[in-house]
Amino acid sequence: MYTISFTVFLMPYEIVAGGVTGLSAIIYYATGFHLENTYIIINGILLVVALYALGFKFMMKTIYAIFALYFMLMFAQYIIPKQPNGLPIMLLGEGQEFMSMIIGCVITGVALSLVFSHNGSTGGTDIIAATVNKYNSKVSLGTVLFAADFCIIGSCMFFPQFGDYIERAHKVMFGFCVMAIENYVLDYAMNMRRQSVQFMIFSEKWQEIANAIGTEMNHGVTILDGHGWYTGKKMKVLCILARKNESIYIFRLIKMIDPNAFVSQSSVIGVYGEGFDEMKVKIKHQRKDMQKYIEGEKA
Is the pTM here over 0.70, yes or no? Predict the structure, then answer.
């Protein structure tokens, strides 16, 4: 997906992007040096540096992704028909830079979300960010990636091959748009796949609803004690966490059992545990004060 998007929608219009791929494209537009060759050289240097800093285990998926993308970019440029200037043909036609940028960024954003959601890495600036974050945990990964992409895209201003200052500024602005749209799609795609909802169900037939959800959907149900302020009555409240795509089925079960039930549905940023997402964080060094607390609780 990333290869198709880059070679079909971004390269023909000389649209710049962030990351090592974007830097390789800038060098290609300015000098004609093959994009995939620059990509593998830069990543090779970064891999040597990161191998010492991050370890071999972390680098395995990154090495695979780098070489896979290298060969795909080379193959795609070989089979796609060329313009007279050597770039791939403009699929959308002349003067469609903005539309091509939007389509390309959406596809690359989805492609990167698939990589990151499976704990993968595309190399390049990801390696720089991981290395900096290891030695200075106060600097977030997003900050390093943003700074690197900003410098890469801004470097267009120093290449006179792109034209006068107005034309170079035009390319830089397009590059910032690429960065914004791609990151937005990346975040949206990753959050959409793990989006969850929380139900709070108030009903006199709470036991029947809990049994139906537990047996029909194999879902856990938490029963809370509630007390109505206006009526002064005690009642049970059902709390359920579910995937967003399961919402309609839960509503159907509730309506079949008690059409007069009061139901509250709210979006949840993340749910971690059995049946949902795994907490993908690593505990490198346990804090001494936390260790003392745990030992005190055990005692």
Answer: no
